[in-house]
UniProtKB/TrEMBL annotation:
<dbReference type="Pfam" id="PF00067">
    <property type="entry name" value="p450"/>
</dbReference>
<dbReference type="InterPro" id="IPR001128">
    <property type="entry name" value="Cyt_P450"/>
</dbReference>
<comment type="similarity">
    <text>Belongs to the cytochrome P450 family.</text>
</comment>
<dbReference type="InterPro" id="IPR036396">
    <property type="entry name" value="Cyt_P450_sf"/>
</dbReference>
<dbReference type="InterPro" id="IPR002397">
    <property type="entry name" value="Cyt_P450_B"/>
</dbReference>
<protein>
    <submittedName>
        <fullName>Cytochrome P450</fullName>
    </submittedName>
</protein>
Length: 409
């Protein structure tokens, strides 16, 4: 087995971060806070790990998300067709500003709060199913039975995705986030399937609009203002639908799973939360700080030579900002590797910072809060089933999460 020193020496992201992310980050912050690494696809990148550097870089307008500013041969992330690639994760202002303004109204804290009752009904239904299948006592994989179906139901209801397609979309997402080296064509097949799915879904919504976000976005596209001002192109419409569904599902699944794991591994914190559930909204901030779903922010490309820390990164090279490393930086969060629901976790970077701050953050927070509230109320004897060392993490730098979370209740 490689040591942390070995992992730093060879510079490959996937070798160290998947198995021992926080140990590697601790070492990097102290010895090489802006470090030359090899990206997941074998191409070069710069990895930034200190809180102050990451926070400043997240808000730096000289670090572009637009892949057109990348040098040939650098790490660029997902390779998607244009109809799925024209999304907020690849855009700078003014296009980013225009599209975010069009969709942002659906994800305000006030609008999201209106989803509280429907989300709780979904959580209760899923727990009802557990009770039906297992009786008063049972065992299950909490990811498959609860953490995954809850957010996919919520985001699909919000967008207006028919029930019969939800399982397919979850399978496609899993393939994209954690590609199987033994099936190199699977990711391409998933992209083709998703493109066909969204093409048909938009056509169906145009024929029969409904009271859902996707129908509203189609109306903006078809009936909106002047092209380039308050209107979406067809590729932007489809890409936005893809991003909302993909990100709205994937990140929340992982956050619910790691939050439950953290509580089960820290029974004193679990007991304190059970004793005072009103602490849940603040607790969510510590969950995302301590072990959030995103190890890295979306890659960036300097528009000109940029100094980060004491390193000058040439224009066009790839910069990877480690949100997870920043959130465990003891310079910002004392005793940062300790899970503590009593700490002030505000200021964490798990959901980003600056103009690219996570659009769906209010929804992710609310879903996690409700998911945990329902578990605390209805499964008082929830415990890990087996040795924590046997838990398996998905082999992905895009979304840190458990493949399964076996529990008894």
């Amino acid at each position: 087995m490689s040591t942390d020193q070995d992992l730093l020496a060879d510079g490959r992201l996937t070798d160290g971060l998947l198995a021992h992310p926080y140990a590697v980050y601790d070492r990097l912050r102290d010895t090489a806070p802006v470090h030359r690494v090899t990206g997941p696809d074998g191409s070069p990148a710069w990895l930034v790990t200190r809180y102050d550097d990451v926070r400043e870089a997240l808000a730096n307008p000289l670090l572009s998300l637009d892949k057109r500013h990348a040098l040939p041969g650098g790490y660029k992330g997902f390779a998607l067709p244009p109809a799925l690639d024209a999304n907020l994760l690849n855009m700078d202002p003014p296009d980013h500003t225009r599209i975010r303004r069009l969709v942002g109204r659906a994800f305000t804290t006030r609008r999201v709060e209106q989803l509280r009752a429907p989300i709780r009904r979904t959580a209760d239904h899923l727990l009802d199913v557990l009770g039906t299948s297992g009786g008063p006592h049972g065992s299950t994989d909490l990811i498959a039975a609860y953490a995954a179906p809850l957010p996919i139901t919520v985001i699909c209801d919000l967008l207006g995705v028919p029930h019969e397609h939800r399982r397919d979309f979850r399978a496609w997402t899993d393939v994209l986030v954690a590609p199987d080296p033994a099936r190199p064509q699977a990711a391409k097949e998933a992209v083709v399937a998703m493109l066909g799915f969204f093409t048909q879904l938009l056509a169906d919504k145009r024929k029969e609009p409904a009271d859902d976000l996707l129908s509203d976005l189609i109306a903006v596209r078809d009936e909106g203002g002047r092209e380039g001002s308050d209107r979406l192109s067809e590729d932007e419409l489809m890409s936005l639908a893809f991003l909302i569904l993909f990100a709205g599902y994937e990140n929340t699944v992982q956050l619910i799973g790691t939050a439950v794991l953290a509580l089960l591994q820290h029974p004193d914190q679990l007991a304190a939360l059970r004793a005072d559930p009103s602490r849940l909204p603040a607790a969510v901030e510590e969950f995302v700080r301590y072990d959030g779903p995103a190890l890295l922010a979306i890659r960036r490309f300097p528009l000109e030579d940029v100094t980060i820390g004491d390193v000058t990164v040439p224009a066009g090279e790839t910069v990877l900002l480690s949100l997870a490393a920043a959130n465990r930086d003891p310079r910002r969060f004392p005793d940062a590797d300790r899970f503590d629901l009593g700490r002030d976790a505000t200021g964490h970077l798990a959901l980003g910072h600056g103009i690219h701050y996570c659009l769906g953050a209010p929804l992710a927070r609310l879903e996690t809060e409700i998911a945990l509230a329902a578990l605390l109320e209805r499964l008082p004897d929830l415990k890990l089933d087996g040795d924590p060392g046997d838990l398996r993490w998905r082999p992905s730098l895009r979304a840190r999460g458990l493949l399964a979370l076996p529990v008894t209740y």
